[in-house]
Amino acid sequence: MKRLFKLINTRKVFNITFLLFLLIPFVYNAQERSNNKLKKTAIKFGYFGELVLHPGFYCGIDYTLTEREWFNFHWDTEVGGYVHKWNNNSVFFQSSIGTKLISSFSAYIDFNLGLGYILSSPNGDVYRFDSQAGITTKGMSNSSHLKSSFSILFGWDGKRKNNLPLTASIGFEGSIQSGFNHTVLPHAALRIGITYQLKNH
Fold first, then answer.
1. pLDDT (tens place) for every residue of the chain, 201 residues total
2. Is 16 inside any structural domain?
3. In a domain, 181, yes or no
4. pTM of the model
5. Is residue 81 part of a domain?
6. What CATH number has the domain bearing residue 107?
7. Structural domain range at position 172
8. 35 part of a folded domain
9. What is the 3-state secondary structure (H, E, C) of the chain?
């Protein structure tokens, strides 16, 4: 687990331009003080299980752009990570646009498209050949990659009929990690989460 958090301090983290893009919702919401904006802002957190069983987490902000009785168009920004034992530890940042289709029973289905950045480190020693063709241990070798994602979530919206500032969801995220051994690496993850509305009235 220590190696997971050490990734945050690597010099390969990400360039400033990309970081600013991901943090736009945070900056925007910090500047807006009105009750109307708070009604549109929610915090989110949950379980992120890469290949279901490799444990991780995520947290972030969900900002509603447009909402109707049966429809919600939202913009999310989040940070998370997971541990794949004997393989790799990774942290990620991503921003996504999503659409919720909400039924009269407060159940919903949520489609999301995202773009982000993933930092990975081997969960174990890295061995390489030295100049004498012998094997040597080089320690941690970090790598950084672009991450594009698509998710489908099924959930329940407590605001619709019970006036609760909570939503709960479970679903699947598929993503593509670019630049992996000169090609791309697909990922699949289980997402289980809670979203809490900052102001409900």
1. 555 545 555 444 445 445 555 555 555 555 545 556 667 899 999 999 999 889 999 999 999 999 888 899 999 999 999 998 888 889 999 999 999 999 988 999 999 999 999 998 887 777 777 767 667 666 557 788 899 999 999 999 988 878 889 999 999 999 998 877 778 889 999 999 999 998 765
2. yes
3. yes
4. 0.76
5. yes
6. 2.40.160.20
7. 2-30+40-127+134-197
8. no
9. CHHHHHHHHCCCCCCHHHHHHHHHHHHHHHHCCCHHHHHCEEEEEEEEEECCCECEEEEEEEEEEEECCCEEEEEEEEEEEEEECCCEEEEEEEEEEEEEEECCCCEEEEEEEEEEEEEEEECCCCEEECCCCCEEECCCCCEEEEEEEEEEEEEEECCCCCCCCEEEEEEEEEEEEEEECCEEEEEEEEEEEEEEECCCC
